[in-house]
Amino acid sequence: MISMGRYSVSLKAVYVVLVIALFGGLTIGAIVTGGRAEVSRVGSLYLEKGFEFPNIENAVFGVYGMYRFYDTLFELLIFATAVLGITIFSDLESSLDSEKSGLVESHVVSASASFLYPAIAVFGIYLAFSAHQGPGGGFAGGVIGGTGILLLALARGAEETGRKFREDSMKRVEYLVLFIALLIVVLGAFYPDTIYRNLPGISVITVVNISIGLKVFIGTWAILHFFVKHRGEV
Amino acid sequence: MTMIILFSVLLLCLSVAVLLQDRLLNAVILLGVFSLVSSVVYFLIGAPDVAVTEGAIGVAFVTFIYVLALSDQGKLHVIAEEVPPFLFQEKGELQGAELELLKGFADEINLELEVEFVGHRDLTSLIGGRRADLIAGAYFPGFLAQEELSNSNGYNQGQLAKIHRPAREGEKMGILAETDPSSIDGVREEGLTRFGSLNDMIKAYNDERISGFVSDSGRMSTALFRINTPLREESEIDTLGEIEYGFAVSAGEEDLLEELDDYLDELARSGELDELLSGYFR
Amino acid sequence: MSANLIVSAISIVIVCVGVIGLILKRNLLLKLLSLNIVNTATILFFVLIVYKPGDRAPIGPVTGVQFADPLPQALVLTSIVINFGVLALSLLFTMVLVKRYHTLDLRKIEGFVKREFEEEKS
Question: Which residues have a Cβ under 8 Å from the Cβ of A182 and sit 6 or more positions away?
């Protein structure tokens, strides 16, 4: 409690008033000065140049998959660190009894999971691979694939699903994918023509799509597996 | 364009509603709806990539992770001294009058019961270090140091009893560690030896190292079986006072204490408590 | 007043609501939920500030059509994924804390931790 003379007020109330004043000032300032409702210079540059690549029709993919792939590489790195943290905790945490591994007793889920998950997985793969021609992208595709696998894990138990999808190899593939992304960035700085235009046999677009999609998929499966195995007591 | 403004106002109302909820589950579902409406806004703006990503992650994934973290039932962690017939273990199974009481209470507040038997000395430190919620096992006010504990209402009457044989010079009485002797008449601190467990105290009495000991009637009845027969014939048992058996919780846990007291009162009023106790205590 | 200013002002107000919730609530999980609201509203602000009515999605090499700005969209995509990764980690720590202290109240947990620290020092 802060007190001045006869009045005393709790510290939290002071904080709340300060926050309201700050954001209110921001809002009013934004309205009064007026923002430009036009595409920025850099944005319009991406709109022009992004379509110069062969086969790219999604300008947003041009930004995060081509011109600013460096940002995407570091985002994958941060995501890998978060997943690494969860994986380490998953090994350290005293695991609960194995009776809890089967979550759902409902027959609807277990019956429908077997034929639903291929559809979800295919949709996720489609989204990841067609990032350059329509909305979607590797991030959404990977998460949707992970959610499809989650449906299977709910029906059959997390341990069994993890074994069936060969979780140990998946962890190594994760770091391999990160390495490939790094390769693209480094080699692309020195040999831009070869990598970005004349790569033999495969286009760099495909490699970018695969790397982002696979990485996010494996990461979300790792997170989900941990949360299903150690359901909390909150 | 008006659609976008309307949806943004809906977002604002949703965000305020999330913070006003009582139950955590409701708040999490509302957050999922918040993500869904913002995904719609992204689509109307002309950002389909962001809409798909926000929909996949914010709606499905985040809600699912929160629900998984909330899903397990919490545990009511009870620590107790093993005292038949209050709370004891036979062939790996827990039994006793207090077990039925605690099970009913745990069901009432929607938690899972977990009972751990510990030594006398560990009881206070475990509650103080917040590793356990409740103390049971023939507990009565005065049994342990009272600083960090709050006592519940009692559920059964008992007596404090003293057993002794004709004392020789310089011999002391036994008492269980941390029991407050000032609540007992006729016993002074200097004449006491403190023991860590009931069994040690009984053994010391059998070995004639102490002239007697003070204990509550519940423990006394178990102790009587373990005292050697000739010694038992020689001993006298005096009643020192009335006590009430109850439970104890950590000092800051008023909510738990209130629920426990309400539960015990309800049982006493409906007569179920007497039925339960008569099954165990004649 | 142009449309993008109204909606971006609304999203700033949502951020404000989230921050107030973060300060006022004592329950750990509700604090996490408020943080989530702050994150979502911030990235909403990023995309809304360059909105002009009649935007089309920036897909397809059709010229002469008014496109939405692709730059903030791309930046926001990575931000969504990172937010979700951080949320998973913080939920993990919340679960560990709750298992240890059996309560979700932040002030009580702080009290216990402080007491343990003082007991260790002495």
Answer: A73
| CB-closest option in A58, A63, A137 to C71 | A63
Whether the CB of A13 is below 8 Å from some CB of chain C: the reply is no
Identify the CA nearest to B65 among candidates C82, A221, C117, C1.
Answer: A221
3-state helix/strand/coil string of A125-144: HHHHHCCCCCCCCHHHHHHH
Percent of chain B that is helix, strand, coil (3-state, to 5): 50, 25, 25
Asked if A34 has any chain C CB less than 8 Å from its own CB, the reply is yes
Nearest residue of B to residue A145 by CA position? B56
Which portions of chain C are predicted below pLDDT 50? none
Q: Are B12 and A27 in contact (CB under 8 A)?
A: no
Average pLDDT, chain A: 80
Q: Which of A61, A143, A227 has its CB closest to that of B57?
A: A143
Residue B102 CA to residue B108 CA, distance in Å, equals 10
Considering the domain architecture, whether residues B193 and B268 belong to the same structural domain is answered as no
8 Å CB contact between C40 and C80: no
- Test mutation, B61, B66, B112, chain A, max A CBs within 10 A: B61
The partner residue sitting opposite C57, judged by closest CB among A86, A93, A135, is A135
Domain span including residue A202: 57-229
The string of pLDDT tens digits covering residues C21-48 is: 998 888 888 999 999 999 999 999 988 8
Is C3-121 CATH 3.30.300.20? no
| Backbone torsions φ then ψ of A94, nearest 5 degrees | -70, 120
Q: Which residue has tokens 């040999």?
A: A191
Residues in chain A with CB shorter than 8 Å from the CB of C3 are 37
Which of B60, B46, B52 lies closest to B3 in space, CA to CA? B46
In sequence order, what E strands does chain C have? none
Give Cα B176 distance to the centre of its chain: 21
Q: Which residue range(s) make up the domain with B203?
A: 157-243
Of C69, C82, C88, the CB nearest to A86: C88
Cβ contact C80–B53 (<8 Å): yes
pLDDT of the residue at B40: 94
Cβ-Cβ contacts under 8 Å, C107 against chain B: none
Residues B180 and B61 in one domain: no
CATH label of the domain that carries residue B237: 3.40.190.10
Report pLDDT digits (tens) over A93-138. Answer: 655 544 454 455 677 877 888 888 889 999 999 999 988 888 888 8
pLDDT-wise least confident of A200-214, B75-89, C10-24, C38-52: B75-89
For testing contact with chain C, the best of B2, B5, B6, B18 (most C CBs within 10 A) = B18
Q: Are residues B116 and B235 in the same domain?
A: no
- One domain, residues B207 and B88: no
Which of the residues C10, C17, C78 would you substitute to probe the A interface, choosing the one with the greatest number of A C-beta atoms within 10 Å? C78
**B258 plus B148 within the same structural domain:** yes
Which residues 132-191 of A have a C-beta within 8 angstroms of C? 133-135, 137, 139
Distance CA C78, CA A72 (A): 7
A232's tokens: 């909390």
Residues B270 and B143 in one domain: yes
Number of domains composing chain B = 3
Q: Which of B11, B18, B53 comes nearest C77 by C-beta?
A: B53
CB contact under 8 Å between B52 and A150, yes or no, is no
**Chain A partners of C7 at a C-beta cutoff of 8 Å?**
none
Placement of tokens 């903030």 in the chain: C72
